[in-house]
């Protein structure tokens, strides 16, 4: 029998009568599957037959079919006569089915083959299995290697048909390394990309450095370079591999002084103790004002300033600024002569060059002198200046000329003289540059002015009441003007000194004259600035119209005014 194909089973009954009382029953194993009766009314024995049409299924294979006849004779004889045929065993042919295969199967390299895969299928005739890989029929008994993992197709066949399924085959094997001995990686790369071992199942890898188990970082770091032992392990064994790891990283850990000093012609940028870590080892490039310079070239004093150190390698760069000071021994570029003014700041005169800034010592006549807070008139003269720093010293001869305003040696004072007596009074003054001394008093014929050096003398012969009064002496130069006064009192013979209304009047006159002199000095100073080109000596004549001239002048016998230059 073939599954799904109709087949007939016939049961022949010989010499049966009366046939109308005959019943035929068909059994499959113990189950009645068909019952048949007959309508023939003949009372004589006849041959009868019963047919069972069977469409077998695979599960009918091996079942037993039989027919059983029953003759029902009634009350005049045996009630039922029954007979059964010999059984018929069904041999049902059907294509393979009930396929049983794992979806995945694993085995060890050189020990696994496809005929060891637990695949089974039911079928009649009994099916045979054929294995295919990528459409190519293979020898199911041949051991597989690690390269033969993948999908395989199992096809079960018999004469009726076939059935197939796919099995994912994994060929397992112990770990092994095929990595290089040296690996170059970059900082911040993923460490999982380096030196992966082969093995199935996928081996676990342990890293050892100096005998210690180390854990891989999430990303490579500069500190992770060195020599490592890699051990790969799975259930089939382990393998070791020695790996030299070179981690490239951009320069970092920059160490440079913020300030650096060296001696002129001996200092160069490659002597600055600057260092940076990096792999490949970085090189340093020096820049000044954005311009690349030769780091080995000695620097001069004009090249002090900020320099930029740039450390570079193939991965990146890092930079910093160093303030360079080029030191050198002292030197002077001052003039030999200096003109200063009294009360000026002495620090503005003749500064030496040098680095570090030199200290300056002043010598006069071989003696160490201390500079005053402000220039004084007695500080002029010839000096030796010595500038010193840690790199040496330099000397310079300086002639210092201190200009100062006139200074009188005497103060204001008063004198008394008896009518008809001779009297003399004088002032002496000094100043730099040369001073001019002018007297202002009521001009009389018996008054004479003489000078000698820095002294000026007023002589009165036979004093009269007209000589009584205030005598003003003014000393001036380009630096300033100073005025002194003498009050002369002419008394009658035998009279005592006393204050009189005339004396009080002269005191008032003296105060007024002082105010006039001060205003005159201010006007002269303004006029000198406006008329700087019109310098020289001038002679002033009294105004004949107005005998009360504000300018102190004394007519002499030849009509000239007393003007004395000292």
Describe this structure in words.
The structure is a single chain. By secondary structure, the protein is mainly β. It folds into six domains: 83 residues, Immunoglobulins (Immunoglobulin-like, Sandwich), CATH 2.60.40.10; 81 residues, Immunoglobulins (Immunoglobulin-like), CATH 2.60.40.10; 73 residues, Sandwich (Immunoglobulin-like), CATH 2.60.40; 73 residues, Sandwich (Immunoglobulin-like); 74 residues, Immunoglobulin-like (Sandwich); 157 residues, Immunoglobulin-like (Sandwich). 5% of the residues lie in helices and 50% in strands. Strands 27, 29, 30, 31, 32, 34, 36 and 37 form an eight-stranded mixed sheet that branches. Strands 9, 11, 12, 13, 14 and 16 form a six-stranded mixed sheet that branches. Strands 15, 17, 18, 19, 20 and 22 form a six-stranded mixed sheet that branches. The termini are far apart. The C terminus is likely disordered.
The major β-sheet equals: 8 strands, mixed
Overall body shape: rod-shaped
> Which bin fits the share of residues in helices?
under 10%
Question: What is the CA-atom radius of gyration, in angstroms?
Answer: 70 Å
Provide the low-confidence segments as ranges: 498-504, 533-566
CATH class of the largest domain, named Mainly Beta
Distance between the termini: 164 Å
CATH superfamily of the largest domain: Immunoglobulins
Might you state the CATH topology name of the largest domain? Immunoglobulin-like
Name given to the CATH architecture of the largest domain = Sandwich
Number of helices: 1
Average pLDDT reading? 87
Strand content: over 45%
E-strand count: 40
Provide the structure class: mainly beta
Subunit organisation of the chains: single chain
The number of domains is 6
């Amino acid at each position: 029998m073939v599954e799904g194909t109709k087949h007939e089973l016939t049961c022949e009954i010989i010499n049966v009568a009366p046939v109308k009382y005959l019943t035929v029953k068909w059994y499959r194993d113990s189950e009645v599957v068909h019952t048949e009766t007959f309508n023939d009314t003949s009372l004589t024995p006849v041959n009868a037959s019963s047919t069972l049409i069977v469409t077998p299924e695979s599960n009918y294979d091996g079942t037993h079919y039989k027919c059983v006849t029953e003759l029902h004779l009634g009350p005049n004889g045996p009630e039922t006569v029954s007979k059964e045929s010999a059984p018929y065993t069904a041999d049902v042919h059907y294509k393979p089915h009930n396929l049983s295969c794992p979806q995945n199967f694993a085995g060890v390299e050189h020990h696994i083959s496809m005929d060891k895969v637990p695949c089974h299928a039911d079928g009649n005739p009994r099916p045979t299995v054929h294995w295919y890989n990528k459409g190519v029929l293979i020898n199911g008994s041949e051991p597989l290697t690690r390269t033969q993992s993948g999908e395989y197709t199992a096809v079960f066949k018999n004469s009726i048909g076939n059935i197939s399924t796919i099995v994912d085959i994994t060929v397992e094997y112990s770990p092994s390394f095929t990595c290089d001995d040296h690996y170059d990686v970059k900082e911040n790369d993923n460490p999982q990309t380096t030196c992966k071992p082969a093995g199935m199942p996928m081996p676990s890898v342990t890293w050892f450095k100096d005998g210690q188990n180390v854990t891989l970082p999430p990303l490579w770091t500069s500190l992770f370079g060195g020599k490592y032992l890699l051990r790969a392990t799975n259930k089939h064994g382990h393998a070791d591999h020695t790996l030299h790891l070179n981690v490239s990283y951009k320069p970092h850990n920059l160490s440079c002084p913020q300030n650096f000093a060296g001696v002129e012609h001996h200092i160069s940028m490659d002597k600055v103790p600057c260092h940076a870590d990096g792999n490949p080892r970085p090189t340093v490039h020096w820049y000044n004002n954005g311009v690349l310079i030769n780091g080995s070239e000695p620097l001069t004093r004009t090249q002090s300033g900020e320099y930029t150190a740039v450390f570079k390698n193939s991965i990146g760069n890092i930079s910093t600024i160093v303030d360079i000071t080029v030191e050198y021994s002292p030197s002077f570029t001052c003039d030999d002569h200096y003109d200063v003014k009294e009360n000026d700041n002495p620090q503005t005169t003749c500064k030496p060059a040098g680095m570090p800034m030199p200290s300056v010592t002043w010598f006069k006549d071989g003696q160490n002198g201390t500079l005053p807070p402000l220039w004084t008139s007695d500080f002029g003269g010839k000096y030796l200046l010595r500038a010193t720093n840690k790199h040496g010293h330099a000397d310079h001869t300086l002639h210092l000329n201190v200009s100062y305003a006139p200074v009188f040696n005497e103060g204001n004072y008063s004198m008394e003289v008896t009518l008809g007596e001779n009297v003399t009074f004088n002032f002496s003054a000094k100043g730099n540059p040369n001073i001019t001394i002018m007297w202002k008093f009521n001009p009389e014929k018996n008054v004479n002015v003489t000078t000698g050096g820095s002294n000026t003398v007023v002589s009165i012969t036979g004093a009269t009441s007209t000589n009584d009064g205030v005598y003003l002496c003014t000393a001036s130069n380009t630096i300033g003007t100073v005025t002194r006064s003498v009050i002369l009192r002419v008394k009658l013979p035998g009279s005592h000194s006393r204050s009189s209304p005339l004396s009080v009047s002269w005191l008032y006159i003296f105060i007024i004259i002082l105010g006039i002199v001060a205003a005159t000095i201010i006007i002269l100073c303004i006029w000198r600035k406006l008329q700087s080109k019109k310098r020289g000596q001038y002679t002033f004549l009294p105004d004949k119209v107005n005998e009360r001239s504000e300018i102190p002048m004394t007519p002499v016998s030849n009509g000239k005014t007393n003007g004395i230059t000292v």
